[in-house]
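ESCALATION

Customer reports they have been waiting on this structure for their group meeting. Please prioritize. Original submission:
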Amino acid sequence: MKKIKTLFVLLLVFSSILYGQKKIDFSSVDRIISAIPDSLATSSQGIANYINSNFITDEKKLRAIYVWIAENIQYDIENMYSFSQGSDETIYRTIKPRKGVCQDFAELFNDIANRVGVKSYAITGYTKQFRRVSYNPHSWCAAKVGFDWFIFDPTWGSGSVQNSEFTKRLNDDYFQLLPKQSINSHMPFDPLWQFLEYPITNAEFCSESLSSRNEKVFFNYKDTLKVYENQSEVDRLISSIKRIENNSVNSFLIYTIIRNLQENVKNY
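Update from on-call: job pushed to the front of the queue and completed.
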């Protein structure tokens, strides 16, 4: 009887491992979203309505959003270094000409995700590729699937920039990343959006020299996020400033972000 119980436990473990490694075939989702009528693709609500009428699961809805943006929004090379506060007008200006920068991609993804009933946030930070840190602001998204948070970068998922030219190509590498994966390339200004119980500091991200977990303080990001969701806008800004300041200010970019947030607090 003991051997049978042991075998049963091992089967459960292996089946869970196999399930976790199983990749979902999104080919039917990609095909359906590519067939969206032009009349519905003129607003984020129209796109959301089409997605909700064709897909049930949050994962498929997010896949549809990711693919639609990758196929239809061009990267605006001329304004690639511009960065401003997102708004409904920004989203409209992105959909109408089918063009935008990383912030526009993220805001559009976030807006459609929330309209289809998926909890999502647009995140700002900076990035690293091929072990080289870019100190230009970048935007991406986080969305909740089930009980877990995943990272989506609709800009990098749409193609790449080389020699001041944008090559459009769907890239699945930035679709539904685990936070522990995305932190290798995407560093949020506010450590809350790392979705990690032991966030890394800006210094660690840049140097790739991570401290031992024993040297870190446990961060309950789930409870912190619940508090964030119930805060006023000004309280969110104040809390974010404190978290950013405590996560090592090691560059002029981060210093500038803090100053901008402080100015926003003054405006309130």
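Sent to customer with the following note: The radius of gyration is 20 Å.
Escalation resolved.
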